[in-house]
Amino acid sequence: MGAIVHAIKARYLWNAVLIVIISVSVTVPASVLYCHRAYADSARSAIQISARVLSHFHITMIHQVSQIEITRTDIKRGYKDIANALHFEVASNNPHGYTLVFGQQCPAFKGIHARTGGTDIYIDGCQGMIKRPCARGPEVVTFSYRLILSDHVEPGTYASPVYVRPTDVVPDS
Questions:
Q1: 28, 72, 86, 104: most buried, per Cβ within 10 A?
Q2: β-pairing, 156-159 with 119-123?
Q3: What pLDDT does 5 receive?
Q4: The whole model's pTM is what?
Q5: Which residues of the chain have pLDDT under 70?
Q6: DSSP code of residue 53
């Protein structure tokens, strides 16, 4: 009977050894049990990047008439022409261009025609706007004025009746 007890104990011992081996192989990573070489791998991934470019607008005034001399001849004619009254350089990255707001600030004049290239604007006591297209790189712009004289204007020297306020905001048409 001693041999049977010994065989049962040996069987339990082998079962215990097998349980330990199975437990270790499940819980221990394979890299610890086996010495394998690690090789670099490549992978590809797609990412999407977007950027928002802020609008940039810069104007440099080159020349602007500050005073206007009105003569009796101008008064008889009813207007005064001023060639190259406003000359500036503008740079903008806004694809919609920019806007120039013109205003009148002297009661000696009924109205003002401002002209550049093929663009004209008439200001009659208030203000008016000209939309300019976007230009690649800096753009030099020159305006000439025709000042429509009021009925009570006298000969003399007057301050420039026109103010110009540039903006990169383009109003909807």
A1: 86
A2: unpaired
A3: 45
A4: 0.61
A5: 1-40, 125, 168-173
A6: P
